[in-house]
Amino acid sequence: MKKKKLILICICLWVFTFILFSPSIQFGFIEFDDMTVLLDNPGLYNEHSFLSSLEEILYNYFPREEPLILRDITWAFDSYVFGFKNPVGYHLGNVILNSFNTVLLFVFLLLTSSRFYFSLITAVSFAVIPIHVEPVCWVMGRKDLLVSFFMLTALICQTLYISSQDAQKKRLFYLVTLLCTAAALLSKINALSFFIVLALHQILYPFLNGSREPGDSFDFNHIIKKILPGFIPHLLISLYIYFWYKGIITSWGVLGSRGPSALAPEHIKTLVLFIPLVIGLYVKLLFLPFQYSIFYHWPNTGIPLQTFHIVISVLISLAIVFMTAFTFYKRKDLLFYILAFIILMIPYFNIIYIGIWAANRYIYFSSFCIIAVSADLIIAFASKHKEYLKKSVFIIWLIFIIFNIYQTLVYQKVWQDNHSLWTYENNLKDASVFSYWLLAKSFTISAAEKHQVPELKMQLFQQAETVINKGLKKYESMGIIKNNYSSYETVHYSNLWHLYGIVSKERNDSLDIQLKYFKKSFEILETWVNASMIAKTYYRLALSQSFDKEKHAENSIIFFEKSINSFEHGSIHDYKKWLNILNQYKRNFPFLKEKIEKIEKGIYNRLKNQS
User: Fold this and answer.
1) pLDDT, average across residues 315-339
2) What is the DSSP letter of 481?
3) Residue 402, SS3?
4) Percent of the chain topping pLDDT 90
5) Which residues of 110-149 are buried (b: 16+ CB within 10 A; e: fewer)?
6) Which helix (H) or strand (E) holds 68?
7) What does the H/E/C string look like for 555-584?
8) CB of 29 within 8 A of CB of 17?
9) How many CB atoms lie within 10 A of CB 404?
10) CA–CA separation, 90 and 77 (whole Å)
11) Chain centroid offset of residue 173 CA
């Protein structure tokens, strides 16, 4: 095919994908990581000085929650050009990256397989599937788009490396592949297994491009001696960045005891049963694009699997084993896509338990593998039948594309702002406790902004209370069991009670009622936020009730101490704030002097150790 025609097709793919997702450019921020990861860090993404941002990102701002250097640099650029609190730059960057990823996928498949229609069908299908709405329309999806960009670039460069006869060009392509592997990891650490995909691609390349028959046997001697040693640098780079990243987030406190260790028998059993169910869920979401959620609360370690779930898990496992074995012996051209999908998903399988088993953003890149296998089978079926069947298959695919475009456009609207997202999530057939909490929080924030309209303010608080009560009932009906795993549902259950306390406080309910809600939240989950609100409420009680003043003051200082002890990463600003609060305790409750001095000493020791 002529070069000009290919360039024109690439431009059309880019423009088509850009237009499809262009509505999201005008979307706002979402109350789910947008605030804590991005908007709480104006110094990291300085809108006045890009160089200052680079200094913070590369040198000063460590440890931090997500030290994803390349993602942070792109955000810093967006902030500098469009303004830190302007969501347009962040959304525009996502749409542009997604458009490039569609083009890069087409180029990679065409270079690897030399099959034009297969490559085009796969790329167009990849562009339209609504499961990609989440990573594209959510600011936080930048890391998924960026890591995919570098992985596709690496695969393209490796294809050029394999096919090139020029030694100098081969060295250049190999170097770029190495750099892209590192860049992918610095965009999202879940690219840890990508070097295996690169190795697999080089091993299976003769089958992918048709120079060897799909059923031919492997030359294991060549693989071991000639191919695998070339990926030792990729392995070393991946391990180095992984341990660097792990050290930083461990210091920050992101990694903690969330469940059994990776090798614990209990966790191995969970993985064996859950991973096939998660894969089955992804396949279902790809081909039946309904009831998408930002937070799938099933499968869940807190909800025992029913017998039919176990049967389905076993059947999916057998299907995976059969497909892998069949393609290994008969269709090595498809083996790459099946193994690549599994390998790319390994970091998302909770081998080291995190707690989120499935998310649309997790499958953004690896979805092309399932699409590619489907496209190959469809083309193979059509090629073996009469002309009318070929046309029928094409029409079915066209209907699939049109339907997915429609679903993508509809689902995009869900992401336009915080309230629309959580209203949608709350109206799903099986809404998560998380959605109840954040929808109620949305009403609470809106109520606080309507302080000049008392009637509307109270109406919004009433709506928040209604949603909170529904969320509490939802959790209590789920049958969550206590085990060795931490539970996000339990965290959100605690958050609902905490929010109940906030609503009660804003409505000026009695302090005893407020205290009841905050205590309930703390009983469920002992966090610094819950302890802090209990301390504040007891403080106000001590000031307002003379007959129990000492008792309430003592309870207040106890919970204040618990709150600061639970706060793992205090800054100098936090320490100063705590010391100022202790000065208020001294002025109002001099009988707590000994306890206050003890807490002050602990704060000064923490400050000394940190400096």
Assistant:
1) 97
2) P
3) helix
4) 84
5) bbbbebeebbbbbbbbbbbbbbbbbbbbbbbbbbbbbbbb
6) none
7) HHHHHHHHHHHHCCCCCHHHHHHHHHHHHH
8) no
9) 22
10) 9
11) 31
For 222, the token pair is 């060549």
| Full-model pTM | 0.94
Output the six-digit token pair for 94: 């996502």
Rounded to an integer, the average pLDDT of 540-549 is: 86
pLDDT bracket for residue 385 (50, 70, 90): confident
CA–CA gap between residue 136 and residue 129 (Å, rounded): 12
Both tokens of residue 110?
């065409």
Is residue 347 within 8 Å of 193, Cβ to Cβ?
Answer: yes
Decide if 299 contacts 277 (C-beta within 8 A). yes
The 8-class DSSP code of residue 417 comes to S
**Tens-digit pLDDT profile for residues 242-275:** 999 998 888 776 665 678 888 899 999 999 999 9
Q: Are the CB atoms for 518 and 498 separated by under 8 Å?
A: yes
Task: Give the residue carrying structure tokens 């009469």.
Answer: 386
Q: Which amino acid is at 13?
A: L
In whole angstroms, give the CA distance from residue 177 to residue 172.
9
Residue 215: count of CB within 10 angstroms of its CB: 11
Token pair for 592: 């707590």
Q: Which residues contact 293 (CB under 8 A, 6 or more apart)?
A: 425, 428, 432, 435
In whole angstroms, give the CA distance from residue 89 to residue 75: 8
User: Cα separation of 344 and 323, whole Å?
Assistant: 17
319, 336, 337: which is closest to 276 by C-alpha? 319
